[in-house]
Structure prediction request, 173 residues.
Amino acid sequence: MRMDGAVHIVDDDAPVRRSLERLLQVAGVKTVAHETALDFLEAAPELSEGCILLDIRMPEIDGLEVQTRLNQLGCCLPLIAITGHGDVQTAVRAMKAGAVDFLEKPLDDEHLLDAIEKALAQAPRAARDSSPAAPIRRSPRILVSVCGRSRCTAFACLRGCKPVISRMQFASR
Prediction:
């Protein structure tokens, strides 16, 4: 199975992270692994395509807080929450914050691949965009310099991501 876009794996557990990387690479999916939530959040403003596979329980910052910060950054990449300690309240919080799926560890390979395929199908894809804004989407630094926002926020605005746009305040000129 070949899927376009990278899956950003955010999990503090190295064996789980490596196992997920191997599974996805064998399935033909590009992966980017992040050891900590803070490492991932540093890279988040530059993300423009793909999806996020995010562990809920991590030291320093948990997955729900990462999800909140991603929303504040205006990152609209589809997010799949994963956890070894799932409960209804956590699942509801993750889904209300915009997660496209909530999976419990140990992960079933087929279920995970199906969730990732669906998430990547929802992901913004500048490369296959034929709208008038496509040249700008292919040159996000131009857009970021014009609007003074992060790359994720700029893409969200171009895609019409309403939760992001409603939180933004633009000064009139």
